[in-house]
Amino acid sequence: MKPNQLTIYNSLSRNKELFRPIHEGRVGMYVCGPTVYGDGHLGHARPAITFDILYRYLTHLGYKVRYVRNITDVGHLEHDADEGEDKIAKKARIEQLEPMEVVQHYLNRYHKAMEALNVLPPSIEPHASGHVIEQIEYIKKILDSGYAYESNGSVYFDVPKYNRDHHYGKLSGRNIDELLSATRSLDGQQEKHNAADFALWKKASPEHIMRWPSPWSDGFPGWHLECSTMGEKYLGECFDIHGGGMDLRFPHHECEIAQSVAHNGHDSVRYWMHNNMITINGQKMGKSLGNFITLDEFFAGSHPLLSQAYSPMTIRFFILQAHYRGTVDFSNEALRSAEKALQRMTEGYRRLQTLKPSGESTVDVDGLKAKCYEAMDDDLNTPVLLAHLFDACSIVNRINDGHDKATSKDLDALKMLFDTFLIEILGLRLEGAGSETGAADMKPYEEAVDLLLEMRAQAKAKKDWATSDLIRDRLAAIGFDVKDTKNGFEWSLK
Fold first, then answer.
1. Which of 293, 390, 405, 378 is nearest to 348 (CA)?
2. What are the pLDDT digits (tens) for 137-147?
3. Phi, psi of 68, rounded to the nearest 5 degrees
4. Closest CA to 420 of 354, 357, 356, 369
5. In the chain, helix, strand, coil percent, each to 5?
6. 363-371 long-range contacts, Cβ below 8 Å, gap at least 24?
7. What's the half-sphere exposure (Cβ side, CA atoms, 13 Å) at 386?
8. In 3-state terms, what secondary structure has residue 358?
9. What is the third-level CATH fold of 7-275?
10. Element containing residue 141 per DSSP (H, E)
11. 130 phi and psi angles, rounded to 5 deg
């Protein structure tokens, strides 16, 4: 195992902290997954890619990682509070389907999109609906602790009582008194002792489809409860990392902390991590605002706001260009820039495979490797890591142009650098760039381009300028840059 120098920003302490797992060599990580009532969009891609990078890097460092990412298929009401209709049940009613039909349809599509983005599947993907028994038992224990109460068949968490003994709001920085005074009166909240209290169990109305028997009523668990319950079931009372989008800090994750403390008498999570939002025109991209673009629309270029289709790897690269704690603002210009940058990276990797070693060296690959690890150890600083990998591309180009020299050992180290950081850790597929995944499929394609350029070289030798120019211009028209060199020619994708 590589000596661990990884620091991560802990949202709870609001500081970067050296990562130290509870159990040596093992990491337990829980990340909030999607509520599956519609197609995945760019906002879903960001946490998936962020924590995929963390999962990959921890695994690379030698840790055995149990990565749990839940599926919310019940209990998430329309307004992220204790009001409105269940999001999945509403979709089922509108489309005249069974709720689990809706869940399965959109879950299949979510998995397909994640696979396209090269997001690794988690170790465990539990469903809220499959853990209702555990959630009922969890509620019983919170009731026994005195931090919850039953009201008209529903069970609510007593936030002010909990806050007197502990600190409700320590993750989000919310003040409970301000929260109580600012919380508006909502339909159904007359059941609550306090407006800030949240549901652990909701009694189902007569028309509510998704319901289970419980000691209190036929109903369903609260949205916040599922993560506390499933996190503990699969990772234990204490685990290392809990991740999710910044929009989940309050109320979802704040409620999780309160539930866990009320249930166990102590905090469950050592490090809280949150990725920032995707914005469009400065506004959060999301279903609730109706300004989202689905991942399939990105891949097909079928949304009115898109000027073209963007490949899954372009989307992944676009997200990795920003630090996970910074905002990413969508624009076609930014995506096209990401597309071109990825092409440059791909071309550098392809060119690396063709370099011939020298007997001496003028490059420092080891120093570059150390910088790549420093970037990842600094709270997963992917934009800095990409900058170092572009430096590696520059080295490749200088060697190719004869301005630098590299031994066989240097070239192997450069290949290892790209394979480790670009492909293994950043998870970028470089089809056609000489990578294991794409080289075999793309070899005929590369040989065809080489053949055309050899024919062009023969035409030039015969002073057949018309044929030479025709080949060059036609290749340029379909997206190839052709460069004449002292050794013949080279080509790259534009």
1. 390
2. 999 999 999 99
3. -110, 125
4. 369
5. 50, 15, 35
6. 363/395, 363/398, 363/399, 363/404, 363/405, 363/406, 363/410, 365/392, 365/395, 365/406, 365/410, 365/413, 365/414, 365/417, 366/413, 368/392, 368/395, 368/417, 369/413, 369/417
7. 20
8. coil
9. Rossmann fold (3.40.50)
10. helix 132-145
11. -90, 0
Query: Which pTM value belongs to this model?
Result: 0.87
CA distance 38 to 108: 11
In a 3-state reduction of DSSP, which class is residue 95?
Answer: helix
Domains 7-275 and 283-425 share a fold: no
Any residues with CB less than 8 A from the CB of 433 and at least 6 apart, and which?
A: 346, 347, 349, 350, 353, 439, 442
SS3 484: strand
Per-residue pLDDT of 175-220, as tens digits, reads 887 776 665 554 445 789 998 999 999 999 998 889 999 999 999 9
Whether residue 348 contacts residue 396, with contact meaning beta carbons closer than 8 Å, is answered with yes
List pLDDT tens digits, range 302-314: 999 899 999 999 9
Closest CA to 117 of 340, 331, 315: 315
The pLDDT of residue 5 is 94
- Domain coordinates of the chain in residue numbers? 7-275, 283-425, 439-493
- Among 371, 362, 412, 409, CA closest to 390: 371
Cβ atoms 37, 300 nearer than 8 A = no
Question: What is the fold, at CATH topology level, of the domain defined by 283-425?
Answer: Four Helix Bundle (Hemerythrin (Met), subunit A) (1.20.120)
Distance from C-alpha of 257 to C-alpha of 394, rounded to nearest angstrom: 47
